[in-house]
Structure formats: C-alpha cells, structure tokens
Amino acid sequence: MATYVFGHTNPDSDSIIGAISLSYLKNQLGEECIPTRQGDISAETQFILDRFNYTDKAPELKTSVAGESVYLIDFSDKAQAPKDIEEATILGIVDHHKLGDLTTDTPLECWIRPIGCSNTVVKQMFDFYNVEIPKDIAGMMMCAILSDTVIFRSPTCTKEDTKAVKELSEICGIEDYKQLAMDMFIAKSAVEGASARELNTRDYKEFDMNGVKVGIGQLEMVDISVLEPRIEELMADMQKMKEEGGLHTVLILLTDIIKEGSQLLVASDDESKIEAAFGKSLENSQAWLDGVLSRKKQVVPFVQPQFK
Ligand code: MG
Ligand code: MG
Ligand code: MG
Q: What element of type H or E holds 183?
C-alpha cells in the first residue's frame, strides 16, 4: 500500500515541492510514496512547476487520510492537517517549524531542524542516504528554499540553506538563481483580480495557542504599496474570518521583501495582547514592524506567550 506525503493546508511552495522531493527520495529508497496536497497550488508554486516542466506531475489533491500511512512535511500542527489525521498512521515528519501538537501511537522517523526550509532538510536527507537528485527536482527544491528564506533575507535563513541552494544550483545548472527567485516573487506578488478573502488566506495558518484560536496570514510582496487602496477591504474581511472561525485574533502581515518589514493588520478581541507581543501601539489596528519577515520566528513566538 502506498504512503502519502503532503505538506500543510494552504500549501506553499515548500509544502508542494517538499511532497515531491521527499516522495522521490523515499521511492529511491524502496518505499512506495505518492506526493499529495491539501489545497490549491499558489501562483508562486505554479511558476516553479512551469519553470521545471513539472505541471503534469504536480501532486494530486487529497484532503482525507483515514486508514492511510503518511509522511508530513513542513508542519506538525493538527490545525494544519487533514481533519481525520488522527485516523492515519504518521510514519514520519520532516519540518523546520516549532513542534506542533500532533502525536503518534507508533515510533516515527523525525527530521525537524531549526533551519530556513523543509527542502533544505530533504536535501540533507538525500546527502545522508547518498541518493542523486534529478535536475528538475533539484531546481524546484532550490526555488522552495529561496522562497522560504526570502532569497536569504529572512532571519530563519542559515548557512545550511545557502549551502543547499549553491549545491542545488550546480545540479540544476542555474547560476543566476537570485534573478530566478526575484521573478518567482514577482509572480507571487500578483494581486489583481483577487478577492479580499483570497488575499487574506493565500498564505494563512491557524494556531491553537493554549486553547485560543489565532489565525496568521502573510502576503510576501516585492512592493506592498499596491495593496494600500485595499487595506480597509482586507481588514473588514479579517473581522468576518474571525467571527466565522470563532477565532480570538486574526493577523495579516503585508511583508515587503525589498523594504524588509511588514505592515501588520489586526482583528482581535483584545488588541492590547498584540500591542504587548510586539511592544508597539496600534494605529487603526495597524502597525509597521520594521525588519519583520518571518511569521515563524518573528511573530508566532511573540504572540503565543500572550495566551499563556
Ligand atoms: Mg510552509
Ligand atoms: Mg517551509
Ligand atoms: Mg513562507
């Protein structure tokens, strides 16, 4: 019976490419694995799949896993898993986030490292098992790392990530990977024709913070000023998301990868908690957070303690 490999809900490039790269490695090691996804493919990920002629081989949508064996990549939070994850057997987790709240009944393989991208962990697994990476998969893994580390600008980026990108660029034969990455972020920045809900949920994750539900979305853009005329609309929709989902707080980060900072939008039952988290007062439920690029390293660790 095949094992399914998938990343978090609202999959980003790391989740989709990670499902592909980890499945490929497992298949080479003699374990039959199928890459799947829990949601739509983003514009950024589509750009990567197109660039490496992989669109026809993209992971299939699969949102129910009861009775299946699975590997998780790029998450270990129950809130980011299929609803019936507790009826599946988790064989392993490959990730680079805080440890989530999923647990297992049986021993598992676990590769969780505090580095910039799950695909860097997968690269290290290829090296560990001495398995060659095909050109197209190497190129896609390289793009996933450049995306997660915001072209090495994110504080989550480590030497291991830059080393992995250099080695992958040699394998795929792309020297100017920074230009490729910039083109990828331009594809990711497209907002024309997208509804407020599409924008708010494009890269959105929910967290259970000690029994309190908090949703945090992020839009990584090469220029966030294009969203200025839409901020009111985005904030009205955040209120709706908060009410519909029974959440205490919804945060959206409009991250400007050139200015290297984020405009924080807040919909919360208690704004003082968010002000305390960042040591900043909100104006019209907003604040500019200079230098903030990473949700996992610069947002979640400061918000979560407010709900202890
Ligand atoms: Mg991710
Ligand atoms: Mg990731
Ligand atoms: Mg990301």
A: helix 177-188
